[in-house]
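Pipeline run #58 for the internal structure catalog. This entry was flagged by the ingest filter as a single-chain record with no existing model, so it goes straight to prediction. Upstream metadata was stripped on purpose; only the residue string is passed forward. Reviewer on rotation: M.T. Logging verbosity set to normal.
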Amino acid sequence: MKSFVINNFKRSENYYQANARAELLEDFPDYTPEQVAQIFNAAIDNIHNFKAYTAKKVLTKIFKKYKGHLNLTEKDIINLWS
């Protein structure tokens, strides 16, 4: 189920989808390093995921929790959305 949600998030076609799909990502308690990388790439590669307001909040939480998997600092994560 988690892979399905991540794959759908990757393919968000508008901000509404990106927001709704990002919220679904919050329903899972844990992610593998590979899954975190997939979510990060989906956020960066898809403008809808990158710019969607609610998605930004959700993604920031996820990326802060798993920053070690991404080799990012909290400052890098905050600057990502600046």
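catalog note: The chain has one domain: 2-80.
catalog note: The first helix runs from residue 2 to 10.
status: ready for reviewer M.T.
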